[in-house]
Fold each of these.
Amino acid sequence: MTIDFDAIHKALSNPVRRDILTWLKSPEQYFAQQDYPLELGVCAGLIDQRIGLSQSTVSAHLATLIKAQLLQAKRVGQWSFFSRNEPVIQAFLEHIHQDL
């Protein structure tokens, strides 16, 4: 697995994207009202509601996190669900710990 650490740094430079990652770390705390099992991830619509920004802005933030491999997306019918990519997050944390 090749990880673009620069893309991760860029993605983490925005507080909204850091909030998304924090919320998805404990989805049962922040998205308990979701009708679908949280094992699928969190529905994009609930992330939109929590952030309170336009859908297009939230989509751009999610796309940046996916490009940096910090999030994974899963389509189920018409819905998109998002979850953290824990192996990449762990590799990034180890990289920071070792290199800085």
Amino acid sequence: MDWTAEIDGYCERLDASFWAETLNALSNAAFLIAALWVARRLGAGAAPIARLLCVVLFAIGVGSFLFHTFANTWSALADVLPILAFVLIYIFAANQDFWGLSGAKALGLTTLFFPYAFATGAGFSALLPVLGGSAAYMPIALLIAIYGLLLRKKHPETAKGLLIGAALLSLSILARTLDEPLCAAFPLGTHPAWHLLNALMLCHMIMVYQRHMLAAGGAGR
């Protein structure tokens, strides 16, 4: 594998220079600001997993900045891996703390995300080819919505927060999807909106978890 192979997948990039995607790169500051803001909001009584999610949220901003500046294979991994880490940590936390599963059972159920994402991602690609690469994110929005719907009776406020998160992610996926189709009419692209909406969504999701833990009396565990 050529770790330095160039990747040009966004409307804003017209050449291989470091700042070719200026807005795509700088808009990642939203992740850093969101991570610092949430960390401050959490305070001393934050749940450990909430604090960990803040660290990963900050890493998402750094990784995405690297990808939208270096735009090659290794920086693509720096972009994707923190996102995957956030998803897996949150699913584990939801399984353990929303559903009350043991750590082992929560971890086992979390591993099922991989076959689930593969199957549903392929389904979204087949049914909605216009999504392109954004189809890979649709399983996450769907899973958040499923958890939200299933938790309505058990934890109504948490369920409401999850459904809002699913809606925010769906809106951000729309912004990501429109980047190339609208390129001729809007040369700057819509990808920065994906970053801004995602930062808001991830910030919201951490607070949903923290509020749940406070309500359950387990924020400090």
